[in-house]
Specification:
Elements (H helix, E strand, L loop, with lengths): L11 H10 L4 H9 L5 H17 L15 H7 L2 H16 L2 H7 L3 H16 L20 E6 L5 E9 L6 E6 L11 E6 L1 H4 L5 E4 L4 H15 L23 H13 L3
Antiparallel strand pairs: 1-2, 1-5, 2-3, 3-4
Helix pairs in contact: 1-3, 2-3, 3-4, 3-5, 3-6, 3-7, 5-7
Length: about 260
């Protein structure tokens, strides 16, 4: 299980769980809370489920996924006291005996205990009215846009938009440059979700023409992902209903960019 923080949604299992909740989800939340599994991924899902209960009761949960915010009013109306009891009970159980607890005891037991304690405190608090967050201003992303991607320490890499999907509207392909560079030979191509680019999570650097060499790198990646051929030097791709590009959210894409960029550092 990939983990990058102590927050309830700062791991791959919780991110995958959040994806399944975007189309409703309260029954899935209750199922995760009723489970007695000690498996690390199942317990990470349970922590995320408990955080969803807290968020639906008006608590400000750190790192709560923006895409789930529209579901909160419906969950708020359907929640019952037993959901809160289940959430607190499940948190207590997994903190005492689970693979997830063992993993944290080996790395940051005190920090994880504080994070769980804060979540339990939020569940203990009286419900508050839900406050609708203002919609963030999203920038328009275009082919040729170059973004700065934070790596470890002070290092960074550049990611250049090579393709905006015409069928899966939220999907983009970006070319990755070595750490500290924004031009020159690319080290690879990453398929990712457009959200971190539109929301400003990856700062915009510049807009530059897509070169013939970059298109050549894109051709191999597109063929592997889409089983389609791209005629150089065109960058647009005609996709059909059978096209399937799995969504790659900000953290997962950032890790993939880092792995590529640091190979040449």
């Amino acid at each position: 299980m990939g983990t990058w923080g102590r927050g309830p949604f700062e791991n791959d299992a919780a991110g995958d769980f959040a994806d399944t909740l975007a189309r409703g989800g309260l029954n899935k939340i209750r199922k995760a809370l009723r489970s007695s599994s000690t498996d690390a991924d199942d317990c990470a899902e349970a922590v995320a489920a408990a955080a969803c209960v807290a968020a639906a009761r008006g608590q400000a949960v750190a790192g709560f996924p923006e895409e789930l915010a529209p579901r909160l009013p419906a969950w708020n109306k359907q929640l019952v006291d037993d959901d809160v009891r289940l959430a607190k009970q499940r948190l207590a159980q997994l903190a005492k005996d689970s693979e997830l607890a063992e993993l944290w005891r080996a790395s940051d037991a005190a920090g994880w205990a504080r994070a769980l304690g804060e979540l339990r405190a939020q569940l203990d608090r009286a419900p508050k009215p839900l406050v609708r967050a203002p919609k963030p201003r999203l920038r328009k992303v275009a082919v040729g846009d170059v973004f700065r991607v934070a790596l470890d320490g002070d290092r960074w890499a550049a990611a250049k938009v090579l393709h905006l999907s015409t069928y899966w509207k939220s999907q983009v392909l970006v070319g990755v440059y070595p750490a500290g560079e924004s031009s020159g030979p690319m080290v690879g191509v990453v398929s990712m979700h457009i959200r971190p680019l539109r929301a400003g999570e990856w700062p915009f650097l510049e807009r530059a023409p897509v070169t013939r060499e970059e298109v050549a790198s894109l051709q191999g990646r597109v063929h592997a992902l889409l089983k389609l051929d791209l005629e150089s030097p065109e960058v647009s791709i005609a996709e059909d209903d059978e096209t399937e590009l799995g969504l790659c959210f900000a953290k997962a894409a950032q890790r993939e960019v880092a792995e590529l960029a640091l190979q040449r550092a």
